[in-house]
Amino acid sequence: MSKGPDFKTEAELCASFVAALPKGWTAYNETEGYDILLARADGLQVGVEAKLRLNAEVVVQASKSWGYDAAGPDFRAVLVPAGHAQRHMGEICAMLGITVITMTHPDDMSERRYGWRPQAFRPELPGKILNYWSGREHDWYDRCPGARCKLPEYVPDVGAGHSAPVALTNWKIQAIKLLIILQRRGYVTKADFKHVKIDPSRWTRDWLERGAERGQFIAGKYTPDLKAQHPTNWAQIEADFEKWKPSEEVAA
After folding, report:
1. Nearest 5°: phi and psi at 225?
2. 3-39 in b/e burial notation, b at 16+ Cβ within 10 A?
3. Residue 27 pairs with which residues in a beta bridge?
4. How far apart are CA 217 and CA 241, in angstroms?
5. In the predicted model, is pLDDT for residue 79 greater than 90?
């Protein structure tokens, strides 16, 4: 049984974990099929799946199929509240090369007697020099993937662990760029789709309307509102406009 308060949701568990990350680690929430894809400053990756209890479901989620040449994170882990990592499931995770991370509730992080303060989560994230001890659930198991997961250009401005997660995919980044051009100029053309590397089919068929001149497409009632969905990422991408803008001048 866990001591102290419990996490009410997986989203709360993930938020606490991300807030406790040490310097040099970045959390890409809801990326490449993981609740959290951690990236260290030198590129090393940890794919994390979260659950309020360590059960077969989260183990299956963390055990995504992989091959010697498939892209994936260097390490895989499941995140559960402290006190909810059953021993036998932990042993199964060790056999599968999955690390079990246990998270202490923030309300239980207050200073204790003799100045001792509980660690936010265990085990610590992989260091640049790894020690391997076989047969223990707190080990890190290097999967040596053929390639690491492709990270989006921007850190997603979304939370992790929600039942209906919103992800910042590379397609969405391209779509946001297109919508910024549309907002600034008032219309887009097939050349703009080519510039941001996005297929125009769905856009020109369902999401945009034809403009006043041939070849122009303007916003319509079904145009996606990605600015509302990703306000922070929208602002970041717009701030980088000079880096990715089309060669044709677009009015501010």
Report:
1. -100, 75
2. eeebbeebbbbbbbbbeeeeeeeebbbbbbebbbbbb
3. 38
4. 20
5. yes
DSSP symbols for 53-97: S--HHHHHHHT----TTSB--SEEEEEEETT---HHHHHHHHHHT
- The average pLDDT across 189-203 equals 96
* Top-confidence residue, 115 or 141: 141
pLDDT confidence of 63, banded at 50, 70, 90? confident
- Domain annotation for the chain: domains and CATH numbers: 10-122 (3.40.1350.10), 170-244 (no CATH)
Residue 136 CA to residue 48 CA, distance in Å, equals 18
pLDDT digits (tens, 9 = 90+) for 83-105: 876 778 888 998 899 999 999 98
CA-to-CA distance for 227 and 230, rounded, in angstroms? 5
- CA 137/CA 73 separation, integer angstroms: 19
